[in-house]
């Protein structure tokens, strides 16, 4: 008679999953808000929404995302405690685009084999990101998928919910001709375009532990630099006296022009001047190492701009100063004009199904 088949022999270790939960408890405890009801381990996370009763017309905002193939670099370098920060940034910073305050988040980790210490490291990064964003981590799921993923492989995803007063929703309806476009600096590559980056590094025959002089660290360390989380500082910027934020755009897949166009009204064109900033060294490194055409690079990577805001032109200096005071380098990158209907390689119209405004990118990056 053959040996009996158990869940463990099929590749799923329930005890390891329980051990991972125990290891992550301390991290999750730091990522809380007063509205959280109950603790870790319930079938659903509970969040007291009674405060919403004081709002006139509360609108819930929700978003879900992952971090793409950046996880492959984390796995290659065996560094797992930062990828969760990226996850939180990708999710909550989509929510704040509407002017909403992110409230709570859940995560999902799929792996080929539960290694409790690795899962706990991933969750510690998620919890740290939630702390930075002022978001409660109210629950999550770790799923072991032997045969579907290799023992060292995993992927992460998350979802969050926020709230905003209906009358305070930001977006194209607020944008006006003459608005200034304010750029907020990225912390690096963030979490988009890693299929391109990985292909370039592989084609060059580089290893992730290769030290790169112009970066001042290894290429792997640069690639794993966590995504900057903007939500908390942007909520403070929105609340700043003398700054009337009209629209925000999270610069993710598609690049600066395509994402800015999504928050502009039809009939408007934003002009972006490359000469107003110097992209960090990693972007020129990827371009030169892979002979990547500039147009492709700009459609794929953020080029040093992680977020943009539009404000009335006369408030531009105040908005820049407030952003810097809140800890994020910022500068005026362009302005909003009337759309003349022109076409050309440097003009983008419509992106990701949104019939928005146009964006023209001009000039050369500052050396």
UniProtKB/TrEMBL annotation:
Domain PurM-like N-terminal positions: 48-164
EC number: 6.3.3.1
This protein's UniProt keywords: ATP-binding, Cytoplasm, Ligase, Nucleotide-binding, Purine biosynthesis
Pfam families: AIRS, AIRS_C
SUPFAM superfamilies named among the record's database cross-references: PurM C-terminal domain-like, PurM N-terminal domain-like
InterPro entries attached to this UniProt entry: PurM-like_C_dom, PurM-like_C_sf, PurM-like_N, PurM-like_N_sf, PurM_cligase
Domain PurM-like C-terminal per the UniProt entry, residue ranges: 176-343
Pathway(s) of this molecule: Purine metabolism; IMP biosynthesis via de novo pathway; 5-amino-1-(5-phospho-D-ribosyl)imidazole from N(2)-formyl-N(1)-(5-phospho-D-ribosyl)glycinamide: step 2/2
Subcellular location: Cytoplasm
Catalytic activity reported: 2-formamido-N(1)-(5-O-phospho-beta-D-ribosyl)acetamidine + ATP = 5-amino-1-(5-phospho-beta-D-ribosyl)imidazole + ADP + phosphate + H(+)
UniProt-recorded Gene Ontology molecular function terms: phosphoribosylformylglycinamidine cyclo-ligase activity
Main location: cytoplasm
Broad class of enzyme this protein falls into: ligase
Family annotation (PANTHER family): TRIFUNCTIONAL PURINE BIOSYNTHETIC PROTEIN ADENOSINE-3 (PTHR10520:SF12), TRIFUNCTIONAL PURINE BIOSYNTHETIC PROTEIN ADENOSINE-3-RELATED (PTHR10520)
Family: Belongs to the AIR synthase family.
Protein name per UniProt: Phosphoribosylformylglycinamidine cyclo-ligase
Native organism: Ornithinimicrobium cryptoxanthini
Lineage: Bacteria, Bacillati, Actinomycetota, Actinomycetes, Micrococcales
């Amino acid at each position: 008679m053959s040996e009996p088949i158990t869940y463990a022999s099929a590749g799923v270790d329930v005890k390891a999953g329980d051990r991972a939960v125990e290891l992550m408890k301390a991290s999750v405890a730091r990522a809380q808000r007063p509205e959280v009801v109950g603790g870790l381990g319930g079938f659903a996370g509970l969040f007291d929404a009674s405060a919403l009763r004081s709002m006139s017309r509360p609108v819930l905002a929700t978003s879900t995302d992952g971090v793409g193939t950046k996880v492959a670099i984390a796995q290659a370098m065996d560094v797992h405690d930062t990828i969760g920060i990226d996850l939180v940034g990708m999710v909550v910073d989509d929510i704040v685009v509407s002017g909403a305050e992110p409230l709570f988040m859940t995560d999902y980790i799929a792996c080929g084999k539960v290694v409790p210490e690795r899962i706990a490291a991933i969750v510690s990064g998620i919890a740290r990101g939630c702390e930075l964003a002022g978001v409660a981590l109210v629950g999550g799921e770790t799923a072991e998928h032997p045969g579907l993923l290799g023992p060292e492989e995993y992927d992460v995803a998350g979802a969050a919910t926020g709230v905003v007063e209906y009358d305070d929703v930001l977006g194209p309806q607020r944008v006006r001709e003459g608005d200034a476009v304010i750029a907020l600096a990225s912390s690096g590559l963030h979490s988009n375009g890693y299929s391109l980056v990985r292909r370039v590094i592989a084609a060059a025959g580089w290893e992730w532990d290769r030290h790169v002089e112009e970066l001042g660290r290894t290429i792997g360390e640069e690639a794993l630099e966590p995504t900057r989380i903007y939500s908390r500082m942007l909520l403070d910027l929105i609340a700043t006296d003398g700054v009337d934020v009209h629209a925000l755009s999270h610069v993710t897949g598609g690049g600066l022009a395509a994402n800015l166009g999504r928050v502009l009204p039809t009939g408007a064109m934003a002009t972006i001047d490359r000469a107003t900033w110097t992209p960090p060294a990693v972007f020129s490194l990827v371009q030169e190492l892979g002979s990547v055409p500039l147009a492709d690079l700009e459609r794929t990577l953020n080029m040093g701009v992680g977020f943009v805001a539009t404000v009335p032109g006369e408030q531009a200096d105040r908005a820049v100063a407030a952003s810097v005071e809140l800890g994020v380098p910022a500068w005026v990158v362009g302005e909003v004009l009337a759309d003349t209907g022109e076409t050309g390689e440097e003009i983008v119209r419509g992106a990701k199904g949104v019939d928005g405004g146009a964006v023209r990118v001009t000039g050369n990056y500052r050396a």
